[in-house]
């Protein structure tokens, strides 16, 4: 057997709290989902007046980031994004329908080098969703650093 | 146009907080979702160590309670539950696949006589899910009573 | 709680009536759906002899316009349409399968600055669907102006 | 963060090897899937000449056993099976369509009291699927006992 870390509800809420504060600061209405390594929601919040499409899309972004171990904007970013027409994974965006999100807003939660979850953010443009998602990662990093754990806080994460 | 009330994120979180405390008190691991009148999640939490099937099922219960305006256990309770074999709505449980939950754990949020959302609880047995779900309703009722709003806090709700 | 406006059936029918008249005037066979803020149909009509694919597509357009708060042609219009290959939301069109429409024919219903529903039109080309959909918005604007409500009647709506 | 155990591929193969031997011994053609705590396949084998429906069903059984933390025959066994008409979870079988299996053949993998995966078996009757599935659990128990880990090997598992 392997031993692996798992996010707690308390940590997920701390991440969402930081994300929501960042969203309020930059004035964007977001849904934020924190998921486990299997892509299952631990906690999710949709800000007042934000889109009803938010939860479904935020969950998909979190699932994809955690499950495919990649920031979701790395799938479709020019020129090498693998899901772009002409590139070799063009078509993978149709797999696992409704759950495989290959555009900006999903970020893996990587602790001590291992993906243990994901954050999905839906509601803003790419820059906004990225600011909000990485705020969640930064809050977790801050929270865990005293115990000697390292969390990746960059936007571009690929395992 | 009609004017209708809408739950805020703050109210949804207050409901989840009360529900989670009740779950801790009666020692059961639950996922709790609070949804709006369209069945879309406002906030959701999955307790540590609880089932990964929780979010999907809790969301379905909340959706059905809000959207069909009925506590979900009223669908399948003996002897008149309409989805029981021999009763006239037997089969409705296959509609809107994956989202129409016709068993215990979903409760409409009724404010001043109107359904404005739902609570879905998944993880315990019927008695436990009901205790947790109605704790959420009671917390909302307490919170809104000073403003003169009435919230139904019974388990059996049908509009 | 927040208080929000909700379209009535009478208003939805008035919108459809205006849309259908416009369709007859420009000689195109359309299905027209008016949906609420959660994307659920309030009223829908399919003109004689029009396509059987109309209802499913018109509902998707209305859902997306209402739920994502954007005219659906703004998703795919050159050169900045966010779902075009190379742009940042390329891939969002695969979310919420069968319901997320990212091409011309869906328009949010915005009253006093808030999205309270959507209109989805399917059957014609882009110019025709737009003429029909905005006719529905204009009819609502006319109907509500005496009560001091403002309705956006432009084709390009983004919240 | 919590720390949890995770099955390795080597352990999953060892479980399948034992299960397949049992199937050969009792002369039944089976598909056997071993999944992780999120219900995702670690390893799967379909015996020569066995049914093509096997993989989909075995995966669903493994998913449900792991994700809902219960041997799948406990859902529908007379008289207390919760999904039987008249019992309180009648209807849960329609959740997570195609993945939630509420009949014999799925068994949680419980190590030191925690569910860390599941085994799904499809191809035989209930007695056969149970013999094959519990053979997998017994093999894992044997393998891990020298390291001081306890694995539940009964057929009836409920957390």
UniProtKB/TrEMBL annotation, chains A, B, C, D:
SUPFAM superfamilies: GlcG-like. Keywords: Coiled coil. It holds the Pfam family HbpS-like. Gene3D superfamilies: Haem-degrading domain (3.30.450.150). It comes from the Bacteria. Residues 2-29 form a coiled coil. This is Uncharacterized conserved protein GlcG, DUF336 family. It comes from Alteribacillus iranensis.
